[in-house]
Amino acid sequence: MDNNSERDAKEEEEEEEQQKQQQQQQQQQQQQQQQQQQQQQQQQQQQQQQQQQQQQQQQQQQQQQQQQQQQQQQQ
Length: 75
Prior knowledge:
Distance between the termini: 112 Å
Largest sheet: none
Number of helices: 1
Oligomer: single chain
Radius of gyration: 33 Å
Structural class: mainly alpha
């Protein structure tokens, strides 16, 4: 092999390595995006739980009102 063909072979190897590294980076980015989506889903679930708690509080208030009405009738 003369100098030129050796240089060509080295350049090809370097290009292949760069391409591999780029592919790995892309895969990592995709994984990060998936994690973000999971976090968003968790946040939505938390919001739903908060809404349920609010509904329970409203029900308790209604019960209190009914008790007050009963007391007035007894008097």
